[in-house]
């Protein structure tokens, strides 16, 4: 029988214990002055009147430094992964230095946008950005309601556009933003007998594409049809070529949709200098999108605006500020790449600000620990730990794995053995939250086999 070292188990448990200690005590020792200072950082600066925008009609024109936001469902949200549409815009308008942010979420509908109750308590990322133009990608999630949901969809959509106008004006003068309505894409038939065939899905999607077009016409807004072009594109070859499951675009699908969007917006696709230039810029766009994602949709948002929120008014405002400065650095980086200027190997975040490290409760008199109270926790090396353990008669404890032999298992959060006796170990070096300025998370699922 194999035993996992108690040292390893202790490390797993300690990760959670220390987190809960940190979470349950921050309120007791919070410094009000520090909180007020941090919250001042998130106050919106004065926003003088912005230059006038052109009408919401095709072909579309932009003003220099126009702030463009993508909102809606997973068609837009997955642009964070591939970056093709933003790359097209930057290369087409290199002198305008467009400022582009993605606020889309996979489950968003015009009438249902689930957020934690305290999502905007500290700060509202969309208000902080203040977009000039919104590209709106809705209709897929709503399409499951079929014909019966059409009128509600149009009504909710109209209300949503008015809500955005009221909550997020372009400037302090209250100038409303501009909207471009984009239809849902078609459903791609994969041929997998366990997946939807697509006929019903496409019938409903067509209804919602038409409803989006009707609303755009009623409101005098530009409309982009993705339904018909993607239907034709998906039919060129059998099987899943452009999606991972019929409805979520893969890299090829994202590129195809980017080309359709560009053609609809400007009349003809642009011929780019070289594939190498395009890919270097696209990779930089994806990097920028990842950093921005930590602002509007960090994966462990429970720690920022959920039930485990701690030290929120001291640490998180500074993190928001730093993240946005990091994204601004990447704006400059992608603008220079698009303009053909020389750039360093990677963006420089050295001037994006410093963060604070709040105190932990270890050693605090109200907290009792089994570890040494004076010198801190004592974690014995495996061989010494084994010597301190009393085993049942006939049993022996042996070291199975430790961080010295397998550095990849540092900072474990969960482990289990499978039916073959293999140890599956989940490691999260960035747990519980990625800190702005650190390297990207390198979480791993490690399988150790004797």
Overall residue-averaged pLDDT value? 88
Structural class: alpha/beta
Give the number of DSSP strands: 8
Q: Enumerate the strands of the largest sheet in spatial order, edge to edge or round the barrel.
A: 2-1-3-4-5
User: What is the distance, rounded to the nearest whole angstrom, between the alpha carbons of the first and last residues?
Assistant: 11 Å
Residue fraction in strands = 5-15%
CA-based gyration radius: 26 Å
Task: Sketch the major β-sheet.
Answer: 5 strands, parallel
**Helix amount:** 25-40%
Tally the helices: 14
Low-confidence segments, ≥5 residues, pLDDT <50?
A: 1-31
Series of H and E elements: HHEHHHEHEHEHEHHHHHHEEE
Which overall shape is indicated by the principal axes computed on the Cα atoms? globular
Highlighted features:
about 450 residues, alpha/beta, five-stranded parallel sheet, three-stranded antiparallel sheet, 14 helices, globular, disordered N terminus
Would you kindly provide a written description of the structure presented here, covering whatever features stand out?
The strands form 2 sheets. The protein has a 5-stranded parallel beta sheet with strand order 2-1-3-4-5, sandwiched between helices. Mean pLDDT is 88; it is low at 1-31. The protein contains 14 helices and 8 strands. The protein has helices at residues 6-25, 32-41, 74-77, 79-82, 84-92, 125-129, 150-167, 199-219, 227-234, 251-266, 275-296, 302-305, 316-338, 382-388, and strands at residues 67-72, 99-102, 133-137, 178-182, 222-224, 412-417, 423-427, 444-448. With 450 residues, the protein is an alpha/beta fold.
